[in-house]
């Protein structure tokens, strides 16, 4: 909820801009993992005119272990450069440099990936160039996301939700782009080229949206307050927590909580009543001691998800005979289904938060997700020597993916919503210095 003296977001241009920026931050990762059949076909020695997008070159033919290396070289730089971004902030490197520089670098690297579709080269050289591109793309994505979340901290909480919605739809967008490329009827090389040009357009649109922000009065109002005021989002979140403490149950909606706090402030005769209360400074270690369980749960959720998706799930094929369903099985049942259900799971926390931060059920639910690792490994993966295939029918894989994806989205969003409540003690905020 915007403050009463703030200008209006005319035509929702600021909201649309942050939605597009959210979409652009996760487009690179989703377009890479969705195009696994293309990369595996190139690494199997097929030339660029072969059926690269729709082929299923997995198992023993994947001598480069592309899925495993891609996951490692995507998540490791995300972790390292997320930490590095805090030092870049302390070094007073302007946000415009970090955000625009990252977007331009990602655009150039994706343009290189698109250009390689037309270039015939040895599988080993192609693998090396692709891995280097994945490393640097995710490094710049980490800096980009950290910097954008820093700006969102000055905006009303609604805009953080819009940004996260854009991120959630990035995977659906990539999966639909893959399906359209496969169903277009064009030759495989043209389809692959069009597929990789699509995120370039999305990133270019993100650059345009970010350049527009300084020219919008609503964005200037909040971004100018970054160094001198407590963010409006902090006031709204505190209102929600106060309402939750009064009822000792599931909190009311953020909108109702914010309205209640605003009415209480209007009753105060002092001129400083409209100023939001300042939080109590605390060290990072003090805050971490309060949120360590939520942080651990979040790490475990991502550990399970990234252990099998897409490294294992992308190798699962349909048990039916050759045909259209077999060709579209993995793009639909793995990537599209995962992203839709993950987005749905994230949206559920807008309606209820269960279990709460004090319940032992939350760590139990998180640990139960480790069962998905053996379940997916025992699905239908052909030409496998060591493990048996216990879940051969397609219905098993689809059921596992539904539960896997919706639990990932819900538990990730739930832990991120509950963590701030752990820092609220005795009517005060504990925030790091």
TrEMBL record:
Subcellular location: Apical cell membrane; Basolateral cell membrane
Key word NADP present: no
Main location: membrane
Record-annotated membrane-spanning stretches: 12-39, 69-89, 96-119, 125-149, 161-180, 192-213, 291-316, 328-349, 361-383, 395-419
GO-annotated biological processes: adenine transport; guanine transport; hypoxanthine transport; thymine transport
Membrane protein topology class: Multi-pass membrane protein
One Pfam family matching this protein: Nucleoside_tran
InterPro entries according to UniProt: ENT1/ENT2, Eqnu_transpt, MFS_trans_sf
Keywords in alphabetical order: Membrane, Transmembrane, Transmembrane helix, Transport
Domain of life: Eukaryota
An example Gene Ontology CC term for this record: apical plasma membrane
A single GO molecular function term of this UniProt record: uridine transmembrane transporter activity
Similarity comment text for this entry: Belongs to the SLC29A/ENT transporter (TC 2.A.57) family.
The name this protein goes by in its record: Equilibrative nucleoside transporter 2 isoform X3
Organism encoding this protein: Octodon degus
Taxonomic path: Eukaryota, Metazoa, Chordata, Craniata, Vertebrata
